[in-house]
Amino acid sequence: MNEWSDSRPTRTPGMSAKEEILARVRTALAAPRRDAVTEAEDVPRDYQRADDKQEVSTDPGKIRDVLVQRLEDYTATVHRTTPSGVASAIAAALGEARTVVVPADLPTEWTSGVTAEITTDDGTATPRDLDRIDAVLTGCHTAIALTGTIVLRGDGTGGRRAISLVPDHHVIVVEAEQVVLGVPKGIERMAEDARAAWTMISGPSATSDIELDRVEGVHGPRRLDVVLIDPEPEPEPEPADAAPSPVARPRQERTA
């Protein structure tokens, strides 16, 4: 029979604060667990998972709408376009930037409408060099709609972390198939390359002091533009041919 009782020790004359704290810890550790977990099978699995019904059954268009809403809540600017208009959308997002740095494997068609001077990052530019560049253009690996988080992998499309932190303006291209609803699905996608360097971005860099005065650009770009590539719209169904008008039968003469 368990003789444990919830009697917390109190300080007595001659007991130091340290002794009292340790005594309380020992009492807490002696408490029997109602949900004893001794094997891996005993671990509760009622948390949201990547194959959750909400994740797999929600319309992808609605998921992208949620992502846009969250990004705009974070004061990011979202440019929605289709594959045929991605070049012009990127050019509009870069605005008046005169110099742009891009990762080594960024698709060339993305920059076909950019008039700024483009520098392909080879890993040698220092933070001081990057600070003189107006904007950075990258792709992304995953976009999590519910949290408005964009995940960059340190590869030829997401770029090394420095280029996404130092320039003052960051433009990220997000493709439709990269958007997921929740964090579990996002983590599942990231687990495909567990050793990669990951950068998670939720809106422009912002912080506040003790008086809650907002300051932007302390830990990264002050401006974040997201170019979201929606699928091309389905072609309009062709109108059904009008039913042919009935042909009047020739009138037959009656003979006597």
Question: Explain this structure to me?
Answer:
The strands form 3 sheets. Strands 1-12-7-4-2-3 form a 6-stranded parallel beta sheet, with helices on both faces. It is α/β, with parallel strands linked by helices. The model has no long low-confidence stretch (mean pLDDT 87). The chain contains 7 helices and 12 strands.
Could you write a compact summary of the structure shown?
By secondary structure, the chain is of the alpha/beta class.
Features:
256 residues, alpha/beta, six-stranded parallel beta sheet, 7 helices
Mean pLDDT: 87
Helix-residue proportion: 10-25%
Backbone CA Rg? 30 Å
Globular, elongated, flat, extended or rod-shaped: what is the shape? extended
Terminal Cα span = 119 Å
Strand content: 15-25%
| Number of beta-strand segments | 12
Task: Identify the strand order in the major beta sheet.
Answer: 1-12-7-4-2-3
Structural classification: alpha/beta
Are there runs of 5+ residues with pLDDT below 50, and where? none
Question: Main beta sheet: strand number and arrangement?
Answer: 6 strands, parallel
Number of helices: 7
Order of helices and strands: HHHEHEEHEEEHEEHEEEE
Layout of secondary structure:
Elements: H1 17-29, H2 53-57, H3 60-73, E1 77-81, H4 86-94, E2 99-102, E3 117-120, H5 127-131, E4 135-138, E5 142-144, E6 149-153, H6 161-165, E7 169-175, E8 179-180, H7 183-190, E9 198-201, E10 206-208, E11 214-216, E12 223-229
Parallel strand pairs: 1-12, 2-3, 2-4, 4-7, 5-8, 7-12
Antiparallel strand pairs: 5-6, 6-9, 10-11
